[in-house]
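Methods — Computational structure assignment.
A single polypeptide chain was analysed. Its primary sequence is given first, followed by the predicted tertiary structure written as structure tokens.
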Amino acid sequence: MTAEAQPLVSVVVPVWNVAHLLPRCLDSLLAQTHRPLEIIVVDDGSTDGSRELMLDYAERHREVHVVTQPHRGLGAARNAALSIAGGEYVAMVDADDWVEPDFIAHPLAIARTTGADVVVSRFWFQVGQMRASFPLRQRTGSLTGPEAARLSLHLTRLPAFAWSKLYRRDLFRDDDPPFPSILYEDLATAPRVLLRADSVALTRRPIYHYCLRRDSITGQLGAKNVFSFAAALDILRHDLHAAGYADAWRGDFRTLLRQAMAMLSIQVLFQPNRIPLRVRGPLLARYAGLLRALAEPPEAGHGLRVVPCRRVRQHNAEHSPP
């Protein structure tokens, strides 16, 4: 296959106040073996020098394109990048993580060989110099979109993280910005996007390094995290109902609710967080009540909705995506 035949791949990198880690992320993307490549870096209102770093990279590397917006959250930043992404395929990387040199080439080869619309990869959990590979439990090499979407309701089978997948760009519709402006936005989005795929391929090679940090969004756990998780589950509940899968997948969704209760309980009770001791019990009791309500079918007209994002300003216009 000639270099000219290779498709453009867009990589979406939302950034908010991670100047000390951003060079590692961008250097790993610039080291990709695949070309052509566009790296869309979204400054989500950073105040720590991240924006200046992005602009410096854009000045020195034609693959890097900088977009800026007021601080509106990870989901809105991803939507902003998707609104200008010109690639046939899209990948997503968080700015505090980094990737292997074949992060694009390996899943892309699988996608082009099998015709898959999405390729899901394994990844490393990284804590300093220590790492452990996530044990992707699903062993089947190929799934239909609905099969993959159903598995994504199980946190240990096919995780709903946005960054562990290579997607065909046309799975993200311009009239339906996929990511809500809440924490845990992946959980509210991945099943809906997977449902649009004809086929989903899996690879057991770990090619992404997911860094666990105390100062990350999930590392700074507060009450907002707890209620955002419930909000993401509510959006997912409405999507499954609208797509006609709510009844058939009721058991899977209730399993997800039980997992969500167990996961947040461990984080609130046993991991360092910003929640005062005196309110942890009442907070979890309220969260449990929300999850019980989510086990029931949604009422028409109720629940959170995804708000379309506004177009944002792209700084290096001379390097606009083709």
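Note: The mean pLDDT is 88.
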